């Protein structure tokens, strides 16, 4: 069984739907098992900047596929979801990129592993750090944590956890329950600062709480994201 890390990115609406569809198509492969998912992060475009912000995340997977066959699957998913390569670094419905595959370091016309420039990109390193901070990057001989710490602050400052409209929904949920922020924090056994961060959309809300919010507000869970 091989371990790989995939980076997903999208900046064409409905962005969350494209991420969800890519994950669903990956999960539908008998040869792929998703082990970990990072939070979703919103990031400004890099390279070609006259376009909308991206949603990015990283997946850790196990797979029976070779690296080349995994690339073929990723490209088929991109095509199925309407990816068009018109402008370099331009808008896209979905990117599904192989960042790492086992401990391999390779450079062919079709595939470069580790993914080129991943060590320079906060929108890759930050979600990767969330799920694999101590992972050693082949050929670079540094961990994800070390690479992230070496990244200039300006390359990290505008990358933020994305929660869509969750903050507003969180506030509506709390008020529906009749709680102040302090009372809500006490009921959950957490700090009031954490509740405030949830309502501002700057901190990730646990999935089980999102399920409860969606059920209470009688909405589909996807509506919480935007």
TrEMBL record:
The reaction(s) this protein catalyses: 6-hydroxymethyl-7,8-dihydropterin + ATP = (7,8-dihydropterin-6-yl)methyl diphosphate + AMP + H(+)
One GO BP annotation is:
folic acid biosynthetic process
Q: Gene3D superfamilies from the xrefs?
A: 7,8-Dihydro-6-hydroxymethylpterin-pyrophosphokinase HPPK (3.30.70.560), lambda repressor-like DNA-binding domains (1.10.260.40)
Annotated signal sequence is: none
Q: What is its EC number?
A: 2.7.6.3
Enzyme type, top EC level: transferase
- Name a GO molecular-function annotation: 2-amino-4-hydroxy-6-hydroxymethyldihydropteridine diphosphokinase activity
The record, for InterPro entries, names: Cro/C1-type_HTH, Hppk, Hppk_sf, Lambda_DNA-bd_dom_sf
User: Is Kinase among this UniProt entry's keywords?
Assistant: yes
Q: Which UniProt keywords apply?
A: ATP-binding, Folate biosynthesis, Kinase, Nucleotide-binding, Transferase
NCBIfam families from the UniProt entry: folK
Q: What is this protein called?
A: 2-amino-4-hydroxy-6-hydroxymethyldihydropteridine diphosphokinase
Task: Please report the organism this UniProt entry assigns to the protein.
Answer: Ornithinibacillus bavariensis
């Amino acid at each position: 069984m091989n371990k790989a890390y995939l980076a997903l990115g999208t900046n064409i609406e409905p962005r969350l739907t494209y991420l969800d569809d890519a994950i669903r198509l990956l999960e539908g492969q008998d040869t792929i098992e998703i082990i970990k998912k990072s939070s979703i992060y919103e990031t400004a475009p890099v390279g070609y900047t006259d376009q909308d912000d991206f949603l990015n995340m990283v997946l850790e997977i196990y797979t029976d596929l070779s690296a080349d066959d995994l690339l073929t699957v990723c490209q088929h998913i991109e095509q199925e979801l309407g990816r068009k390569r018109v402008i370099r670094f331009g808008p896209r419905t979905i990117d599904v990129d192989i960042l790492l595959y086992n401990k391999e370091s390779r450079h062919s016309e079709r595939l470069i592993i580790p993914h080129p420039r991943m060590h320079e990109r906060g929108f890759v390193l930050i979600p990767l750090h969330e799920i694999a901070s101590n992972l050693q990057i082949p050929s670079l001989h540094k961990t994800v944590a070390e690479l992230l710490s070496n990244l200039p602050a300006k390359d990290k400052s505008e990358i933020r956890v994305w929660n869509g409209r969750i903050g507003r929904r969180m506030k509506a949920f709390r008020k529906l329950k009749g709680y102040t922020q302090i009372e809500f924090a006490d009921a959950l056994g957490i700090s009031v600062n954490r509740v405030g961060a949830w309502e501002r959309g700057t901190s990730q809300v646990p999935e089980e709480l999102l399920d409860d919010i969606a059920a209470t507000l009688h909405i589909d869970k996807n509506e919480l994201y935007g």
